[in-house]
Write a structure and sequence with these properties.
With 170 residues, the protein is of the alpha/beta class. Helices cover 19% and strands 27% of the residues. The strands form two sheets. The chain has a seven-stranded mixed β-sheet. A two-stranded antiparallel sheet has the order 1-2. A hairpin with a 2-residue loop joins strand 1 and strand 2. Helix 1 packs across helix 2. The chain is globular.
């Protein structure tokens, strides 16, 4: 498998966005959802309470996903069909998974081509699902603001202008 990362002068490009509130996190998720298409894989990482599920709620809103987007920690994976004919949101929580072999066991390869797949706690276990993906690392600061680092991997994300330069400010 070959990974191509968007680069500037040979250096991987990571887009950092500040989100001051939960609403700003959801707005960033909605803005990102507008750029997604079926087959997209988004891998979220960050500590407990960083805002991974809050961010995914915004993606669900942007995709017009059916149902409440909540953490799928105990069920591992939830599918939220689109209410408007767009791609479904497949929301996965890999926290309890110990390896990429275990993520293979939930058959994401069956839903990945026609859905937007978001894997929380996916760093180190979900990268093998797709050569093209968006890796999203969320840092929560003591003042409850977050810095969201968006790292495009693969040709799919190379020329995409990622959202958020003004999200969460103010």
């Amino acid at each position: 498998m070959t990974n191509t990362t968007a680069t500037t002068n040979g250096v991987p490009h990571v887009h950092a966005v500040t989100a001051a509130t939960d609403d700003a996190m959801r707005t960033l998720g909605r803005d990102l959802a507008a750029l997604t298409r079926p087959g997209d894989l988004l891998i979220l990482s960050g500590p407990l309470g960083a805002g991974k599920t809050t961010f995914t709620q915004g993606i669900g809103q942007g995709l017009d996903a059916r149902g409440s987007v909540t953490s799928p920690t105990f069920v591992i994976s939830r599918i939220h069909p689109s209410l408007s004919g767009g791609p479904a949101l497949v929301h996965v929580d890999a926290y309890r998974l110990g390896s990429s072999d275990e993520i293979d066991d939930i058959d994401l390869d069956m839903t990945l081509p026609e859905s937007v797949t978001v894997v929380e706690w996916g760093e180190g276990v979900a990268e093998g699902l797709a050569d093209d993906r968006l890796e999203i690392r969320i840092e929560r600061h003591p003042d409850d603001t977050r810095t969201v680092h968006l790292r495009p991997v693969g040709a799919r994300w190379t020329d995409i202008e990622l959202p958020g330069t003004a999200t969460g400010r103010g």
